[in-house]
Design brief:
19 helices; mainly alpha; 78% helix; single chain
């Protein structure tokens, strides 16, 4: 493994070196950085400005010498002394890039994680329901999302996902027509997803329709959208449901030891949240991190003590169940702060421009809501295309694996369909998806350039765009350097992950 990583790092280094040289040459020939100075009427001022620009960008040096100078400064990043030059406005690129990275990576990371989780999940269900109505609907939507121009999607999201939604939240009533429409949609989706014979489909559709209609009527009656909250009862119910669901996926509900470990961890997380309630009213990220580590530790201990011979499964299930229970508690606190946050932003809770409200201050939960709601629309815009691709990749890979001999052998041995799908098929189906994840991360950063423009984010996309428009090479090279390094790192992580997903792969 060490030899493999070292070899890949060396290859990646020379790949980055060649790529940066090509981009630097292209940027050097993209235009004249002195062009805007030729319009200065005063000749003396013009000459002084041109001389200053030439000295700033080292334009009096040969191209190769300029590149080597930039490369020397970039190499300083390895020892914490980055020098990526200055913009034509004499601003330090390293400082600008550091500020922009925080904004862009927050957006790109959220979009990538959600796209992977949703896309892989829907892709697996689509493969298991091959040639059903659900499969056809997912396939249609995947191709539709993939073909949508991201700038057009972003504009529609601003109109309907922010402006009109904020207007509706001012008086959030649910019309009867909307309740009927969502009820019918839920009935169609659930019966298609669960499948079965006609009788089972009708029962599923009826239960889904009744549950959806009752939920919407209840939420409208209590004005939940004006004052959203989960409440202690719902938090407990959802947390216990997580424990049961994770146990079912990891080992099956017949394995009581795993179930008891998951339930014990969830109980510990809920009790801990009640004990720490005064602290959680206005915590810090350090407290949230310590709580998360506490849940992980509780899950490991519960799985080890209660798991018996199935300790590895029990520990995994317990940790996952505890973390999801913690996320449920976290969500409850966020929703509880919604009303106060809405009052502070005059009811415009979904931001249309920027990565947050300027000069906003408040409790931890209000600040989190401010930053999260600013992420909603640009994240959705970035998710759609990636989601469609993950669905198609996962479906195709899962169908291929399900037809393998070892899967048929597992079924012939009498293993349950859940065990065959989760333990045998799912891991191998993830290998091509993992390859795409490494490539998609760089593509999402490229898409963020357009998304940031539409939503007014001051991130790496704005830095890159301004550098191109102003024929300013240093910001463009800074953007490219960060993007290229991230793509190389993710490709390396994908290669290492192969060995975990399929032990037959030997990286050495």
């Amino acid at each position: 493994m060490g030899v493999f990583i070292a070899r890949r790092v060396i290859i990646s280094f020379f790949t980055l070196l060649a790529a940066t040289f090509v981009v630097y040459v292209l940027m050097a020939n993209a235009g004249d950085p002195l062009e805007e100075l030729y319009g200065i009427s005063d000749q003396a001022q013009q000459d002084a400005a041109i001389e200053g620009r030439i000295a700033l960008l080292n334009l009096d040096q040969p191209l190769l010498q300029r590149y080597l100078g930039w490369l020397t400064g970039a190499a300083g990043c390895l020892v914490g002394a980055c020098d990526l030059g200055q913009t034509i406005a004499q601003q330090d690129v390293t400082e600008l890039l550091g500020q922009a990275m925080a904004s862009t990576l927050r957006l790109v990371t959220a979009a990538t994680i959600l796209a992977v989780i949703l896309g892989v999940t829907v892709g697996i269900v689509s493969a298991l329901r091959q040639y059903t109505g659900f499969d056809y609907a997912v396939t249609f939507l995947a191709f539709l999302f993939f073909s949508l121009p991201i700038f057009w999607v972003a504009v529609l999201l601003k109109e309907f996902g922010a402006i009109r939604l904020n207007d509706w939240l001012a008086d959030p009533g649910i019309p009867v027509a909307v309740i009927v429409g969502l009820t019918l949609l839920a009935a169609v989706v659930w019966q298609a997803a669960l499948g079965g014979n006609r009788r089972r489909r009708l029962i599923t559709a009826g239960v889904a329709a009744a549950a959806t209609a009752a939920t919407l009527i209840y939420l409208d009656a209590v004005e939940w959208f004006a004052r959203p909250a989960l409440g202690p009862v719902l938090v407990v119910v959802i947390s216990l449901a997580w424990a049961v669901g994770i146990t079912f996926l990891v080992s099956g509900l017949r394995n009581r030891r795993v179930l008891y470990a998951s339930l014990a961890t969830v109980a510990a997380a809920l009790v801990g949240s009640m004990v720490l309630a005064p602290v959680l009213e206005n915590p810090t990220w350090l407290i949230i991190l310590l709580c998360t580590l506490g849940i992980v530790l509780a899950g490991l201990v519960a799985g080890y003590l209660l798991g018996g011979l199935d300790r590895p499964q029990a520990m995994r299930a317990a940790v996952l169940s505890g973390l999801l229970a913690g996320m449920t508690v976290f969500t409850d606190y966020v929703l509880a702060a919604f009303s106060s946050y809405s009052d502070r932003v005059a009811g415009r809770v979904i931001a249309t421009i920027g990565s947050g409200t300027p000069n906003f201050s408040g409790t931890f939960w209000e600040v989190f809501l401010d930053q999260t709601t600013a992420l909603v629309l640009p994240t959705l815009a970035l998710i759609l295309i990636s989601f469609a691709t993950y669905v198609r990749y996962t479906r195709a890979s899962m169908l291929e694996v399900l037809n393998m001999d070892y899967v048929r052998t597992a079924r012939a041995k009498g293993l349950t369909e859940r065990t065959v799908t989760v333990r045998h098929a799912f891991r191998n189906a993830l290998i091509p998806v993992t390859t795409y994840m490494a490539i998609d991360f760089g593509a999402v950063i490229g898409g963020a350039v357009i998304t940031e423009t539409v939503f007014g984010w001051s991130g790496m996309g704005a830095l890159f765009r301004n550098g191109l428009n102003n024929v300013d090479p240093n910001p463009v090279m800074g953007f490219f350097l960060v993007t290229a390094v991230l793509v190389v790192i993710f490709n390396l992580l994908a290669d290492i992950l192969y060995a975990y997903l399929d032990p037959r792969i030997r990286l050495s």
